[in-house]
Fold this sequence. Notes:
Elements: E1 13-22, E2 31-34, E3 37-39, E4 43-47, H1 54-61, E5 69-74, E6 77-79, H2 83-86, E7 90-93, H3 105-115, H4 124-134, H5 150-161, E8 168-172, H6 180-195, E9 199-204, H7 207-213, E10 216-221, E11 224-230, H8 231-238, E12 241-245, H9 249-258, E13 262-267, E14 270-274, H10 280-289, E15 296-300, H11 304-312
Parallel strand pairs: 4-9, 4-10, 7-8, 8-9
Antiparallel strand pairs: 1-2, 1-3, 1-5, 5-6, 10-11, 12-14, 12-15, 13-14
Family: Belongs to the ABC transporter superfamily.
Organism: Stackebrandtia albiflava
InterPro entries: AAA+_ATPase, ABC_transporter-like_ATP-bd, ABC_transporter-like_CS, P-loop_NTPase
Amino acid sequence: MTTGARRPVSGRRAVRTTGLSKTYGKAPPAVDDLDLEVPEGAVMGFLGPNGSGKTTTIRMLLGLIEPSRGRVELLGEPMPGGAAQVLPKVGALVEGPAFHPYLSGRDNLRRLDAADRSTGRADRDARISLALDRVGLLKAARKTYRAYSLGMKQRLALAAALLRPRDLLVLDEPTNGLDPQGTREVRSLIADLAADGTTVLLSTHLLSEVSQVCSHVAVMHRGGLKAQGALADLAARAGRRVRVDSPEPAAAAGALTALGLAEVVTDGTGATAEPGETPPEKIIASVVTAGVPVVGFRVHAPGLEELFLGLTGEGFDVSG
Length: 320
Ligand SMILES: Nc1ncnc2c1ncn2[C@@H]1O[C@H](COP(=O)(O)OP(=O)(O)OP(=O)(O)O)[C@@H](O)[C@H]1O
């Protein structure tokens, strides 16, 4: 799946936190000194294992809990001071709205829309139809909520978040508990919203979700932010390595060093190094010319999984 033709990411920030922290009792901080920046127009994956502080951060962003320290800015306004102005422009899927099991999808949205004093009554039905259409539930709008599949329930929760136009969507594990079909539906809906210019902050413990849906990522580990930025930039930063397989690892390492390569390391079956700007063909030629018996040569570009493993020392669930 691709994320479609999204509008270019701007220099402005839809979310900016400074030194954001939350401590519960005497436990280590649930969120520790977070400087998170979500560029406007980005789909940012908020990636981290369970318990790393994602939900706590999201709840602070939305003003649902108070930070112990630090500041939050949403769409350029300080929170919670700017809440009345900003929150109508922010759709959130955090705990999921409380839907009534015996009401239809449409009637559930009617109840929620009626509870929102900032929306008018006259165009309520049109607004609800638009939101249902957006998430592909228009045909199933008359079914009772309890007859919905998990994917449909999640899409109805997204429809509730989309009852009015949003500049920012904050989604906490939106595909959790969904079957593959439901997961695909929700991910493709996120891609559509992003293509329309909505900034999305999407928390997940799934690396595959980040690589399929997101343009940016912020990596959480034990309450702290390990890295953030455009996926492409992070991957480029991870650095390639070249590997020479040889029965004479020391000689291979010597040839790589002589060529000026950095971070040369030997092991039992050869040597590796960072190639920098030196082209692979030049490296092979130099090693062979130096008389090193070469039995294999590889250029290795680390994948996202390896990159995050390096950042956190923990594997991520790559399924889904
Ligand atoms: N209300 C609370 N009281 C005490 N500790 C809490 C509370 N809420 C969260 N924590 C703790 O804060 C830490 C971070 O939890 P949080 O739910 O933010 O992580 P997460 O990354 O969202 O994980 P998950 O995906 O499991 O929700 C955990 O150690 C959790 O036990």
